[in-house]
Write a structure and sequence with these properties.
Helix content is 72%, strand content 0%. By secondary structure, the chain is an all-alpha fold.
């Protein structure tokens, strides 16, 4: 994995984090920095996964895996944070 690959994964993850935050209707309980961090970390994990299965360099498979994992991570964070907390005791 090269520095360019890591930089591309981070860029993809940050972009997915920002876009994920923008598409959520209404006010979100999740700060922008958190969605960007989750997106970047998940995209980096996707880049490592793609690299391990043989997708070397910048290619479509690597970008799809990065964007997919980043999207899943951001959606999970936003969905779990936006649930209303019930005070059932």
């Amino acid at each position: 994995m090269t520095i360019a690959g890591i930089a591309a994964a981070l860029a993809v993850g940050l972009a997915v984090g920002v876009i994920g935050r923008l598409v959520v209707p209404g006010r979100s309980n999740v700060p922008l920095w958190l969605t960007m961090t989750i997106g970047a970390a998940a995209a980096l994990l996707g880049a490592i996964s793609a690299w391990l299965v043989g997708a070397r360099g910048l290619n479509l498979l690597g970008l799809v895996v990065q964007a997919g994992l980043a999207t899943v991570g951001v959606v999970i964070v936003i969905a779990t944070a936006s649930k209303e907390h019930s005070d059932s005791r």
